[in-house]
Amino acid sequence: MAFKPANNIQDLQYFGEFGGVNPSISDSSTYTFLSAKTMFDTFEGNADGCYLYSRHSTPSNLYLGKALAAMEGTETANVTASGMGAITAVLMQLCGAGDHIVSSRTIYGGTYAFLKNFTPRFNIETSFVDITKLEAVEAAITPKTKVLYCESVSNPLLEVADIEALSKLAKKHNLKLVVDNTFSPLSISPAQLGADIVIHSLTKFINGSSDTVGGVICGTQEFIDDLRNVNDGACMLLGSTMDSLRAASILKNLRTLHIRMQQHSLNATYLADRFEKDGLKTVYPGLASHPSHDLFKSMMNEKYGFGGMLTIDVGSLDKANALMELMQKQNLGYLAVSLGFYKTLFSAPGSSTSSEIPEEEQKEMGLSDGLIRFSIGLDADIERTYDMMKSCMKALNILK
Ligand code: PLP
Asked: Domain 258-395, what fold?
């Protein structure tokens, strides 16, 4: 039977402490024990169902984790205070001094900076490769490699990873395949395609209201238990814990994700199609011209479309900046980083979210100055949005 992520979320049943339709929020940082022995056992990890201290876990965080695990089809999940809190904890848990990571070179700038500048302090080295070239990925693997890291759909270039093929490579070389699925929730289910660990920044589409940061790690019970281990678990010891109030609010937003993703995808498809026909250099996985269009199609849960992210290249940073300022003035969206909001958000990644990547490397990976990344909103009338965007482009001589 086909994997149905939204059904999996809907099929969960919650009863609040007083019979409420939403689970009660656990508003405590610490928990009492009826016996000292149970407290000791809980520290040792042997007292299932007991809560110890909120950095370890809380009922609210477990509810949200359960829903996200259901969405990705993994045994369980652990929520974190941010997407970076998830990424850094996973990599620090899987790698130690002397280990090596093979990573896609087109990834979120913060992840890139962490791997390029931070982990070498712990003698963890990373080789950055073109993830769409499987020979290059395999050639970069050494006896020290522990992790293969990529984004399903990459930030900002929208390259698509062949998760099934990468999973085969990972298994062959005994590596863990870690996939950041932030750009394609519901559309792609990496664990179903063989990923060992799936990460999201909940800050983006999943929460969808640009009012909080959050993250999640979806994986096996064994790995999540390792992360929470009081003696050597990266989530427990690095402390990127989500607050219970936030977990409760994200859980409520998650329930409308399937409807929002459909609308984001519908609107992005419409705009990408029109922009391309107008002669703009447009990148969107839903376009037949995208080099990995067929691959995305072969991996996707069709109902949710090709996602809300697209890029256009308007030729220069000056033009990109002028267009973004004008579009904001016309209330077509906000000149802001991040993604997954009800309004369209746009930014020039070369000078913002990917500025951690040195200019030379940006050039090599095809990240040009005139590139604008759009996170397309939930506009009710996308034809009107298109007409207004086109007027802005005409006013600035980007389109004739
Ligand atoms: N992964 C991707 C693909 C992102 O775009 C981002 C943030 O922009 C992150 C991870 C980091 O998430 P957070 O900002 O929640 O720490």
From this structure: Aspartate Aminotransferase, domain 1 (3.90.1150)
CATH of domain 5-254: 3.40.640.10
- pTM equals 0.97
Domain coordinates of the chain in residue numbers?
A: 5-254, 258-395
Report how far residue 378's alpha carbon sits from residue 394's, in angstroms, rounded to the nearest whole number. 24
Ligand 1 pocket list (CB less than 6 A)? 82-84, 108, 110, 151, 155, 180, 182-183, 201, 203, 213, 215
Do the domains at 5-254 and 258-395 have one common CATH topology?
no
Give the model confidence (pLDDT) of 260-304 as tens digits.
999 999 999 999 999 999 999 999 999 999 999 999 999 999 999
Sequence-separated (6 or more) residues with CB below 8 Å from residue 301? 2, 3, 4, 5, 186, 187, 188, 189
Distance 210 CA to ligand 1 centre (A): 12
How distant, in Å, are the alpha carbons of 174, 215, 334 from that of 61? 31, 11, 31
